[in-house]
C-alpha cells in the first residue's frame, strides 16, 4: 500500500505532502475547523493584549452584570469580566490539550514501537497493561490519577497524558506490526541496523500520519478532560481562569446569571468541534487509499 502511493504521486508530478495538503484544503469543514483552532491559539497568545480587563480584578460594584456594551459577556459573582476570563482561560485549556497529548505521544509511541518490534513477553506485558488501562473509562481514570497527584493544572495534564497514552501504544504497535512484515524492514535488519534505528528511522516516519490524526482528535478529548478536572477542582486552581472552573463557579447562578455558564460552555463546544473537524479532514487527506482527488 505504501509502495503504490509514491508512484501515484510521482505520476501526477506531485509530492505526497502537497497532495495531502490539497486534499485537506478541499475539505471545507476541516479548513473551517483549522481556522477556528488558529483563531483560539492567537487569542491565547495575545491574551494580555486583547483582554479588555484584568481577569483577576474584582469589583463589588459590578457583580453579575448581564452582557452589555461595556462587558460583552457580562461579569461573574465577584465582578470579574467574563470575556477576559474566557480569553485567558484559553491558555489553560489549549495548553492542557496540547501538552497532555504530547506527553501521551512521548509515553505511548516508544512503548508501542518496542512492543511491535520486540514481540514475545515484552509485547504481552505492554499490551496487557494498555488493555487494562483502556478497560477503565477515560475520564474516570483521569480523575483518579489527578486526585492522587493533587489539585494543580500540571498534575491534571500529567494525569491526562498517562490516561491517553494507551491509545497511542495500541496504534503505534499495530502500525509497527504491519510495517514489520515489509521487505524494507527486513532489508534494514539484514544490513545490521540495531533495533532502535529500525524503529525510529525506518518505522516511525511511516506511521506518523495515523499518529497525527489520532493526536488531533485526542487534543479535543484532552480539553474536555481538563475542563472536567477543573470543574471538580482538580485542574486549574482559582482565581486563575479556566473554562472548567468557570463552569463550576457558575452552577450556583444558573437561573440568576445564565451567561456565566453559557459563554465558557459554548467556547468549550466550539473548540472541541473545531479539533474534531480538523482531525476528520486530516484523516481523509492522509489516507493513501483515498482517491477523491
From TrEMBL:
InterPro entries: BP-dependent_transpt_permease, MetI-like, MetI-like_sf, OppC_N. It is found in: Cell membrane. It holds the Pfam family OppC_N. Keywords: Cell membrane, Membrane, Transmembrane, Transmembrane helix, Transport. The chain crosses the membrane at residues 29-51, 94-117, 129-149, 259-278. It is a multi-pass membrane protein. SUPFAM superfamilies: MetI-like. The keyword Oxidoreductase does not apply. Residues 90-279 form the ABC transmembrane type-1 domain. The keyword Cell membrane applies. Coiled coil: none annotated. Belongs to the binding-protein-dependent transport system permease family. PANTHER family: OLIGOPEPTIDE TRANSPORT SYSTEM PERMEASE PROTEIN APPC, PEPTIDE ABC TRANSPORTER PERMEASE PROTEIN. This is ABC transporter permease. It comes from Neoroseomonas terrae.
